[in-house]
User: What shape does this take?
Amino acid sequence: MNILESIRLAARGLAANKMRSALTMLGIIIGVGAVIALLSIGEGAQAAITEQIQGIGSNLIFVIPGSLNQGGASFGAGSLASLTLEDAEAIADPRNCPDVAAVAPQVTQSAQVIYRNRNTNTSVVGTTPEFEFVRKTEPAEGTFFSTQESASSARVAVLGARLASDLFDEMSPIGATIRINRVPFRVIGVLQEQGGAGGPSGNRDDSIFVPITTATARLFGSVAARGGGTAVSLINVASVSEQRIDDAIEQITDVLRRRHNIQYQDDDFTVTSQEDILGVLTQVTDVLTLFLAAIAAISLLVGGLGS
Assistant: This one.
């Protein structure tokens, strides 16, 4: 039997069972389309996550209190009060960490925020003016707080984009007075919308940013870290370039080990980069994409056999 005869027999078989042939073709078309669509969705989600993370700095480093694996037990960020403002100052010293460009420590707590008849509970981040550079938080409106305002513990606040919209609708919040835990603050800026989670420091779109001196002196009080000093929740660090991240991480680790008098495997802190976080999320999205593709492929196979 030659190929032409095979084609004629196939054509006659299809013509004799038009409904079955149409359903088989429809099942195959839908199955192939589902595989392509799910793979595209997975790749699109991965691209969106990558864009959001890289958008807040490809040279960003996070220093987190507590080791992620101490004695076989996992600890989350901030589970131990082991980092201090003095640690941040030591990291910012170019004699200690020449590959570090800027440092912004932060303390974070939840608080009630009130404007007129509206109120909400959200994260209040006390940080330094360097946060604007380290985290690329250029205001969409107004300004970030200055070194002078931080030094004087000024009651000024910068709002995340979504929080500003929730409290003020379409009205400009610049110059308005809000109350954070009943303490009045003047709004001086609104950040550009970020989207996404924003890494260990949380989603800035729903947060309020105030000088760290104001947060510790007038809002939350200072918390003593183990060994003394004012505890911080996180230290944001920008390396001088993306290529120098590994060197900056090594320098930060060495400085903190000396300051905390700890040995190699007894770290009470974790140093991680934006690249590390992106790698973990990429692995998760890759697994999810393969899982969805496998489901679609199995559906295609079952549909083809059933027809």
User: Anything to note?
Assistant: Residues 70-79 have pLDDT under 50 and may be disordered.
